[in-house]
Design brief:
Layout (H helix, E strand, L loop, with lengths): L16 E10 L3 E4 L6 E11 L2 E8 L1 H5 L5 E12 L2 E5 L5 E5 L43 E2 L5 E2 L7
Parallel strand pairs: 4-6
Antiparallel strand pairs: 1-3, 1-5, 2-3, 3-4, 5-6, 5-7, 8-9
C-alpha cells in the first residue's frame, strides 16, 4: 500500500499524492474550452480536508458527479498544481478516488490553498524582430557578439 500523506505536508511539487479526505463542500460546475483543440470540459472545485488541513480539489467531467459533500474518500496517485497562485489537488489520468467508511474530521483552520504561491516560471521573452532576432539586455535587436566583441547579424554575410 502507498504511503498516506497529510494535506499540511503537500507542496507545489508534490506528485503521487495519497490522502484520505472529507469533502467539506463542492462548488458550482463551469464549462471551459480547451486551448489545444477547442473541446469543452466541465470543471468544479471541492474543498476537501483531513485532520491536518484542507485544500481545493479540481474535479473534471465525470468526477464532478461522483463526489458528494459530506462523504469521505481515499485519493490515490493525485498531484498538486498551482492555479492562480494557489495550490490545487488533482486526480489526472492516473489518479483514483474511492469512497471510504472512515471518519475524518477536517481542519478548516489550515487551508493550504490560501497560501500564495509565486509563479515559478520566467516570463516569456519578448520576440520583436521579424528577422528572428530579439531585444537583448542592452536593447539591441537580433544578432550576436563574436569573440572580439564585434556585432554580427543573423542572415548577414560579412567578408
Amino acid at each position: 500500500m502507498e504511503t498516506l500523506m497529510q494535506i499540511a505536508e503537500l507542496n507545489p511539487s508534490s506528485r503521487s499524492v495519497n490522502v484520505k479526505v472529507h469533502v467539506i463542500n463542492k462548488g458550482p460546475e463551469n464549462e471551459v474550452v480547451s486551448r489545444k483543440d477547442g473541446s469543452i470540459f466541465r470543471v468544479a472545485e471541492a474543498l476537501v480536508g483531513d485532520s491536518s488541513g484542507c485544500i481545493l480539489m479540481s474535479l473534471w467531467n465525470e468526477d464532478i458527479a461522483s463526489v458528494e459533500e459530506g462523504m469521505n474518500y481515499q485519493i490515490t496517485n493525485g498531484y498538486i498544481t498551482v492555479f492562480r497562485e494557489s495550490m490545487r489537488l488533482n486526480l489526472g489520468r492516473n489518479g483514483q478516488m474511492e469512497k471510504i467508511d472512515e471518519e475524518i474530521q477536517p481542519n478548516q483552520e489550515n487551508n493550504v490553498s490560501d497560501r500564495r504561491i509565486e509563479n515559478r516560471f520566467k516570463p516569456r521573452r519578448d520576440y520583436k524582430s521579424r528577422r528572428g532576432g530579439y531585444d537583448d539586455s542592452r536593447g539591441r535587436r537580433g544578432g550576436y557578439d563574436d569573440s572580439r566583441g564585434r556585432r554580427g547579424g543573423y542572415g548577414k554575410k560579412r567578408y
